[in-house]
Design brief:
By secondary structure, this protein is α/β, with parallel strands linked by helices. The protein has 8 helices and 15 strands. The chain starts with a helix and ends in a 5-residue tail after the last strand.
Length: 317
């Protein structure tokens, strides 16, 4: 038989190849960092796991490298190795307030090797905590105000990388959450270096994260506004960091206010001391067909030309 180390790498390669066959930017580790919402089908591994005791152990190790979970496991996990050595990443899927005791945090430290978490939830991610977690991917918070950002820093105090994916973002001018709106065609990507680029209230909320190096935000975008934004710094004179289209239209008309506001955005204190990179990515309605977007109780639909249609709906986020 081949050495165990080589067999392990072969199985990992099979898993990664199947998971990311259509992803040109895939890395060399099985992960749920991208838009994938579940692991591969167990049938991919089933036959191999029955070949021998050694192969079964290796297959289980690879399979449980990412643990997808809906409820706190308690003592229900089938193998002790899940906690002690196998699991490196935990994915909390579709977390709802009623399925968790929101007054008691679940300590991820019981998983000795976990350094990365992904949480899909509309509520605050305060239900889980882990000192060893250095990378967190938080998705789908319906109203991402600073009060929902603060628990990230308290739950994962040793974060180095934070990823946020949400339809709305906080506007530091009107202190509300809005879907970013730009003139068609809107931006795809904005990059900041030097510790600024976040909504100022987010910066303050994350200030206690002394090891935080990078924040990546993916937010929704409507292409029916009046604001424009380029990808290079000299094409982004307002240093956009979440401001809503309406606030920019009204408040930036006052040149003296705009100058003071821009100065404030680049000198926010306190801030994470090691934060050096902030990147924004934007996606449009047509790319998120399963995610209804609502703006003031009106469902917003966009055509490929950026023209907006509205349909009244009684639903809320």
């Amino acid at each position: 038989m081949l050495p165990v180390e080589l067999l392990r790498e072969i199985i990992r390669h099979i898993a990664v190849s199947d998971a990311d066959e259509d992803d040109e930017d895939a890395d060399n580790e099985l992960s749920l960092e991208r838009s994938r919402c579940s692991k591969q089908n167990w049938n991919l591994y089933s036959a191999l796991s029955l070949s021998s005791k050694t192969l079964r152990a290796l297959v289980l190790e690879v399979w449980f490298r990412v643990l997808v979970i809906k409820d706190p496991p308690g003592k229900r996990l089938p193998f002790p190795e899940i906690r002690s050595s196998w699991t490196r990443e935990i994915y909390f899927i579709h977390v709802e307030a009623l399925s968790w005791n929101i007054n008691r945090s679940w300590n991820i430290n019981e998983f000795e090797k976990v350094t990365k978490v992904r949480i899909d939830t509309k509520i605050s991610p305060h239900f889980a905590s882990g000192l060893k977690v250095v990378e967190a991917d938080i998705r789908d918070i319906a109203w991402p105000s600073p009060m929902f950002i603060v628990p990230i820093s308290t739950s994962f105090p040793n974060l180095r990388i934070l990823r946020l994916r949400q339809v709305r973002v906080w506007c530091g001018l009107c202190n509300t959450c809005n879907i970013p709106k730009f003139e068609y065609p809107g931006p795809k990507y904005v990059r900041y270096e030097g510790g600024y680029g976040l909504p100022s209230h987010y910066t303050t909320a994350l200030a206690s994260l002394v090891n935080l190096e990078a924040v990546y935000l993916t937010v929704g975008m409507l292409q029916t506004g009046g604001s424009t934004l380029g990808n290079e710094e000299d094409e982004n004179p307002h240093l956009w960091s979440g401001e809503c289209d309406r606030c920019m239209e009204i408040m930036y008309a006052d040149e003296s206010f705009k100058i003071k506001w821009l100065a404030k955005k680049t000198s926010v204190n306190p801030r994470p001391p090691r934060l050096s990179l902030v990147e924004w990515y934007f996606w449009t309605k047509k790319e998120t067909e399963e995610t209804p977007w609502y703006e003031d109780g009106v469902e917003t639909l966009e055509s490929d030309t950026g023209e907006e249609e509205s349909e009244m709906d009684d639903s809320t986020d």
